């Protein structure tokens, strides 16, 4: 049985300052954001009705828009309040939250400086991005054909819609090959990230992760680095070459959707999900859930 289409879910969506019925949150086919990818978004999770690091996400949404040369006409506080309202009105305490901002349809061409900037916020029930059993056993990753671009060629510090085009292509190819996701290299052939998550490796009790200089420095990534250091685990951010993967014992990925998920295989490299991965999975769960219960 096919899953219900996202445009047919029930609930409300915050759209340009007001709540509207789910099926009325529409835009014109000639919106600039659709044709020229002048759109930015966030992926967030609510636990117990409270959005984890909501303000950090709202701040990043505003920064992403600025990088794409437009300004979202709402403050961070207003965006936070709108997200909270959507979660409350949709009645799902364990929810995924998606704010998205885009240029409208006043001008259809590359230059669209006078176009209206729209903002919409939706929330829906969305369980773990990967199968719960596989999250600890470890998912299998393919090696993506497309690479993360040179930061001189793309706005890599923005969570911009256009940057995910190669991610969708890569994930589709990986799934067709029997993998859960794909690991992407950067433009120089170094390890970068997965299609929608940051990646970490373990060697001799230390964590190694690629420098986030050509891909998004995820909020979950930052959280997990903080949790590891709180436990006294050294985290080394550096360039990592694919040839080094044979030296690592564990691998895991992080993201708002993926949370903390173990990896057992990347193409021909194998890993053993174990102590540090399990510890950080538990620590992340403890970090996001008790705050919601106490609020």
Q: What is the terminal-to-terminal distance?
A: 38 Å
Query: Biggest β-sheet, characterized?
Result: 9 strands, mixed
Instruction: Tell me which CATH architecture of the largest domain applies here.
Output: Alpha-Beta Barrel
- Number of E-type strands: 16
Query: What is the SS-derived class?
Result: alpha+beta
Please give the CATH class of the largest domain. Answer: Alpha Beta
Low-confidence stretches: none
How do the helices and strands follow one another from N- to C-terminus?
EEHEEEHHEEHEHEEEEHEEEEH
What would you note in describing this structure?
The chain is of the alpha+beta class. It folds into 2 domains: 7-124, Aminotransferase class 4, branched-chain amino acid transferase, N-terminal domain (D-amino Acid Aminotransferase, Chain A, domain 1, 2-Layer Sandwich); 132-294, D-amino Acid Aminotransferase, Chain A, domain 2 (Alpha-Beta Barrel), CATH 3.20.10.10. 28% of the residues lie in helices and 27% in strands. The protein is built from 7 helices and 16 strands. It has helices at residues 32-36, 54-67, 76-90, 132-137, 165-176, 219-230, 275-294; strands at 12-15, 18-21, 39-41, 44-47, 50-51, 95-103, 117-124, 139-143, 181-185, 191-194, 198-203, 206-210, 235-238, 250-255, 259-266, 269-270. Strands 8, 9, 10, 11, 12, 13, 14, 15 and 16 form a 9-stranded mixed sheet that branches. Strands 1, 2, 3, 4, 5, 6 and 7 form a 7-stranded antiparallel sheet that branches. The chain is globular and about 55 Å long. The chain starts with 11 loop residues before the first strand and ends with a helix.
């Amino acid at each position: 049985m096919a899953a219900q289409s996202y445009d047919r879910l029930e609930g409300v969506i915050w759209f340009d300052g007001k709540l509207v019925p789910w099926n009325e949150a529409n835009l014109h086919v000639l919106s600039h954001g659709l044709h020229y990818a002048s759109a930015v978004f966030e992926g967030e999770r609510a636990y117990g009705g409270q959005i984890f690091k909501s303000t950090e996400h709202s701040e990043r949404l505003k920064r992403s828009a600025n990088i794409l040369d437009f300004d979202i006409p709402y403050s961070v506080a207003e965006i936070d309040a709108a997200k909270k309202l959507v979660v409350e009105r949709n009645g799902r305490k364990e929810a995924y939250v998606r704010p998205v901002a885009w240029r409208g349809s006043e001008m259809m061409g590359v230059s669209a400086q006078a176009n209206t900037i729209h903002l919409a916020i939706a929330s829906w029930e969305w369980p773990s991005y990967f199968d719960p059993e596989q999250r600890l056993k470890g998912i299998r990753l393919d090696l993506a054909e497309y690479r993360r671009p040179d930061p001189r060629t793309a706005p890599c510090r923005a969570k911009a819609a256009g940057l995910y085009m190669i991610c969708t292509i890569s994930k589709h190819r990986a799934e067709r090959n029997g993998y859960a996701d794909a690991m992407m290299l950067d433009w120089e052939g170094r390890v970068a990230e997965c299609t929608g998550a940051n990646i970490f490796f373990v060697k001799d009790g230390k964590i190694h992760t690629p420098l986030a200089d050509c891909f998004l420095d995820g909020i979950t990534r930052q959280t997990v680095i903080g949790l590891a250091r709180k436990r006294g685990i050294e985290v080394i951010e550096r360039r990592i070459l694919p040839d080094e993967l044979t030296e690592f014992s564990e691998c895991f990925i992080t993201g708002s959707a993926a949370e903390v998920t173990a990896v057992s295989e990347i193409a021909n490299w194998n890993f053993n999900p174990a102590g540090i991965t399990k510890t950080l999975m538990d620590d992340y769960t403890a970090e996001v859930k008790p705050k919601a219960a106490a609020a």
